[in-house]
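call fold(seq) -> tokens
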Amino acid sequence: MSAVLTGGCNCGAVRFEISEPLAEARYCHCRRCQRRSGSAASATATLRPGSCRIVSGADQLVRWNPGGGVRDKVFCGTCGSALFIQWPGEDDVLGVRLGSFDSDPGVRPSYRQFVAYAAAWEAIPDDGLPRYDERAQDRNPLRPWT
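ret:
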């Protein structure tokens, strides 16, 4: 990766930069992601630790832990844009929603997880990606480089 990736929320209050290549990306079809995103699935990229810097709007970020989930969902408190995944109580960003990048993030989702909960109203495309009924157990989705 030769350039820093940039992105932000819909209203522009939150801006971020990512200084290293993204590790991987995935689609999640769980009910939480459906409700959080208002769509059939969410697309998220995994980051290398310490590679994300909040450039502006850190005071606008709101964290929500859905209970039973091990990660906080982080969004803009002004416009509601879903942005990040973080461990509770930690500042390091683990994942970024692909829709929040300003340009092509250079990574494509490589698998689909929680397909057992896929929305009945939208068929999962026949895109050849591996599908997992639950969480993808054969990989560490938060630290795939380890």
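Helices lie at 31-37.
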